[in-house]
Design a protein that fits this description.
Layout: H1 7-14, E1 25-30, E2 33-42, H2 45-50, E3 62-72, E4 75-77, E5 86-91, E6 97-104, E7 112-115, E8 118-125, H3 128-132, E9 139-141
């Protein structure tokens, strides 16, 4: 059963059609609908390693986009020093979702594998992906994705 989408996400989705691609936002679309999230982009080894560790809360409609310079043979995350539950959305070089891990638990050091050939990972508050229906096949749009190969280009 899907829960109601919070009002802040509905407001973000309503402005989606008129908004241009921006480095501080991602758009997602799929057979479930569409959504826009404000994101912090982490694209260096140091910022990817830090991620959302020690963050005490993340506002609804916000997330973090992990960007790798090229598809990675294997991507895995853990929740060490992470204080809030997270959904992890793993995407290939086209921005197409390949795997979603919902409700990763704070402080859990168990490796969460994202799969092979993953180039982007979007972290959202725990439960958001499940509640909205975000799953494999969903497409993400962001300026970091090469427009020549993107499933949904800017």
């Amino acid at each position: 059963m899907r829960l109601a989408v919070p009002a802040v996400l509905l407001a973000l989705m309503a402005g989606q059609a008129s908004a241009a691609c921006r480095p501080d936002a991602v758009e997602l679309r799929g057979d479930w609908g569409a959504a826009r999230f404000r994101v912090e982009v982490v694209d260096t080894p140091e910022t990817r390693a830090q991620g959302l560790m020690f963050v005490e809360e993340m506002a609804p409609g916000e997330g973090m986009l992990f960007v790798y310079p090229a598809p990675q043979p294997r991507v895995g995350f853990w929740m060490k020093n992470t204080l809030i539950p997270l959904d992890m959305i793993f995407m290939d070089a086209t921005g197409t979702v390949r795997k979603v891990h919902t409700m990763a638990q704070p402080h859990d050091e168990t490796l969460i594998p994202g799969g092979e050939d993953i180039q982007y990972v979007l972290e959202l508050n725990g439960g958001v992906a499940r509640d909205m229906g975000i799953g494999p096949g969903t497409e993400l749009r962001h300026p970091e994705i090469d427009p020549d190969t993107a499933a949904w280009a800017c």
